[in-house]
Amino acid sequence: MNTGTVIFLNGTSSAGKTSISNELMQILNEDFIYLSVDNAIAGVNDMLMNMFGKQITRDEIRTIEHEEMIENPVISLFHHYIMAFSRIGKNVIVDHVLIDRSWLEECIKLLHNTQTFYIGVHCPLEELERRERERGDRPIGLAKAQFEMVHKHSKYDFEVNTSDNSITECANMIKDFIITNQPNALKELKVKMNL
Fold it and tell me: pTM here?
């Protein structure tokens, strides 16, 4: 089967995944579709706003969307979208925050037989917190809450640090890596985690 290439970026909020994705879209030689977990849950957020009216805040919605009854089906659907695009030969850049082991396990099961490069996007907590305050569009403390979980069970094909390197440098390093290497991380994680 001729699957599309998946560049799967995993890291905390404010680590730089979206900026790297935008840069990759500009410098890669082939066309890529951008899929973000934030965009995937945006429709749920809008639905909740309509259901509960204007009195519910975005922070309250973020709390609601982390309840299992809403979150798991939406996240699982997002993972299946990634697989579906790859299986029909589309190239995909994925912007994700794998804060739950079950999410990683599902991605491994769905994507281990595809051309998926699993990329860790790192940044020190102090810098994440500074970016979070500067951005003003994320709840304060979100990056800290995700920091210990997001890379806990992961083994990557390649890793970048957006504190040590610029977004452009990180994107170019990822591009160079995927041109000259084959992905193995998800296959190895499948064996290691006995999936």
Answer: 0.84
Q: Which two tokens stand for residue 69?
A: 């009854």
- Nearest 5°: phi and psi at 96? -135, 160
Nearest to 161 by CA among 6, 8, 17: 17
Helix (H) or strand (E) holding 39: helix 37-52
pLDDT tens for each residue of 134-173: 887 777 888 888 898 999 888 999 999 999 999 999 999 9
Dihedral pair phi/psi, residue 184, rounded to 5°: -135, -15
Which candidate, 184, 166, 191, 139, places its Cα nearest to that of 23?
A: 166
Task: For residue 105, give the amino acid letter.
Answer: E
Q: What is the CATH number of domain 5-192?
A: 3.40.50.300
